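ok so I'm stuck.
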Amino acid sequence: MNSIYGMVRQDNPYILQVRVPVPYPLQYVNAYLIQGDSGWTVLDPGIHSPEALELWEGVFRTLGIGFGQLERIVLTHHHPDHYGLAGYFQHKSGAPVFLSEWGRRQADDLWGNGDEAARRLWRLFRQHGMDAPMADAMLPHMAGFVELVSPRPETAPIQSGDMLQLGDGLWEAVETGGHAAGHMSFYRKETGEMFCGDAVLPRISPNIGYMPGVEEDPLASFLEGLRHLGEYAVERAYPGHRDSFQGFAKRCCELIAHHDRRLGQMEERIGAGPCTAYECCTGLFGTRLTVHQFRFAMSETLAHLIHLEGQGRIRREERQGAVVFFGASRNPTASSLLRR
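replied:
not stuck anymore, here's the structure
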């Protein structure tokens, strides 16, 4: 692979991976430039920040690309690190932006509906035992994303099974959930290539988070999606984080096994004694987390507990205004609850 401008890597003659900085522990998100005879497709341009804009200006200048050469902007999902610059790029280029209908609705809810989504999250976390100072910190944290996704784009919908032109090739849109409802991967059968966004990542596990009013069991959606994606004959995958990789079907199996182990850990924790989701979260992930990391950890804990509950492996009851989970084999005793 050749390195271009330091932050750009070229895996083949028509796909460039651009590592766009993000203000999170992952440090970078992968955007992709896909070259065609008549222009370029941008996939997941990254977050709208001064650092990201500076990078893109340097990349476009070095490669001799003008905004007028952008034919389309395609989004795998609505999360800010993938979606954030789409509106800015659309404003500069006039190019259409493609996103699933699920993704558009969630973007509207999160950043076009005041703080209602953040307050739903606050109520959820408090209901599941999060202490007031940490839950309160979620409100300004969520509000801080608005500037990172503004201006918001006008989007054209993508449906699963659509054939979308990226560069000069036609790529099949493949919808999966769990990490983000309406997440789209894009598969090119002729070359065995797939842009998999955050649906499948090498070396790290995508966050599977529960958000009220979206997917009832996001982990079930994610696992179903992994099984579906693993059926595709993928020779090389281009993920939203880390480098492109081979062994795609094997990685899908590894992620399924990872979540099986995580479910077992949480079931064992609750079997040892009743606890709230927040107690389970801090027991598993610790307490030395940023607000951003706590949001991810708490949402992931809830996704796993909801899945365990759906399988009949744990139960819940409301005690003193908080939801308490306990092993399905026995009811919590009054003494065990008082000890809490």
